[in-house]
Structures are given as C-alpha cells and as structure tokens.
Amino acid sequence: MQNWVANTILKRRTGVDDAKIVAMSIPMIMPPFVKDDFKVLLSASLSILAVVMFVPAVYRSAYRIVQEKELKTKESMYMMGLKPVPYWLSWYVYYVMVMTVLTLLAWGMMLAIFSQINAVILFLYLYSFALSLFGIVMAVQAFFSKARVGAIVAATFFLLLIMPWLFTQ
User: Fold this and answer.
1) In the chain, is it the N or the C terminus that has fewer CB atoms within a 10 Å radius of its CB?
2) Using the 8-state DSSP alphabet, how is residue 33 labeled?
3) Is the pLDDT assigned to residue 1 strictly greater than 90?
4) pTM
5) How does DSSP classify residue 95?
6) How many CB atoms neighbour CB 11 within 10 A?
7) Given phi > 0 = left and psi -120 to 50 = alpha, else beta, which region is 17?
8) Domain residues of the chain, as ranges?
9) What is the C-alpha to C-alpha distance for residues 149 and 157, in angstroms, rounded to an integer?
C-alpha cells in the first residue's frame, strides 16, 4: 500500500507514467576477514586464567586471617585496646593493595591482547570482581579455626562458585 502511494506521488511530480521506486541493496566494501587462531584460543582460556589468578590471593588471605584466630593474635590485640573496626579495616586495606596489583597486571595483559576493548570498563570489571572475593574470605574464615583447612575451603569454595560461569562461556 505504501509503495503504491509513493509511486503515485512520484509519477505525478515527475510527469513520467512508468516511474517507479525500486529498492536496491548494494554490498558494502569490507576488508577481508582474517581469523586469528591465537586470539580465539586466548578468548576461550582467558576467563579461566583470570579466575585462577585470584585463587592464591584468596587462599593467602583466608590462611592469614584464620591463622591469627588460631594463634589467638586477634584476642591479644583486643586485650591491648585494639577495636574490631581498625582490625578488619587493616585486613581490608591489605587485601585491596594485593588485589590492586593483581588487577593491574591482568588488566595490562588483557589490554595488550585485546585492542578493541574499553580499558576503563575492563578495569572496573576486574577490580570489582577482585574486591568482591573478600566477602568469600570473610564468610569462610568465620567457620574455621585451623588455618590450612580454612584456606583450602575458601579457595575451593571460590572455584566451586565460579564453575557454572566457566562452563557457560
């Protein structure tokens, strides 16, 4: 219906009886597609490597926090007048410093590999993921009094939580 109206208007304006509007498609000139097997391999394994990179930091943080509980260091500091907020804040600052270094390393490597990615969004994504892992450390350390067991469970729990995401990639 719309085509008929448009053709009628065209015929009346131009004065040509066989004038018609015809839709055409012309392909765009594009450079040839080049498949880079190295980038395909990296994009498939980079998510796994990015997750595995954070496991030692989770293990170490959980180990140190539970070790302080095991050695009663925290109670000794409380008896000397340390309040809980500065104690946990010091752990969080330590964790933020470690995760900042790890995130900057991962961010630099990913930017070197993937040139067409927004650097700020990638950094914020990695950094927020790294800082959210402190919640796992805090949740797991509350249930254990042996440092090694607590650290192993924290790292394993972290990997188990990540598995569904890794298998859907």
Assistant:
1) N
2) P
3) no
4) 0.69
5) H
6) 14
7) alpha
8) 63-167
9) 12
142 phi, psi to nearest 5 deg: -70, -20
How far is Cα 52 from Cα 7, in angstroms, rounded to an integer?
A: 64
pLDDT in tens, 121-162: 989 988 998 999 898 899 998 999 899 999 999 999 988 888
Q: How many helices (H) and strands (E) does the chain have?
A: 6, 0
Whole-number Å distance between alpha carbons of 19 and 16: 6
Contact 162, 51 (CB under 8 A): yes
* Closest to 93 measured CA to CA, from 137, 131, 128, 140: 131
Task: Write the CA distances from 120 to 23, 97, 98, 104, 105, integer angstroms.
Answer: 43, 19, 20, 12, 14
Match 């980079």 to its residue by tokens.
46
Q: CA of 108: how far to CAs of 37, 113, 119, in Å?
A: 21, 9, 9
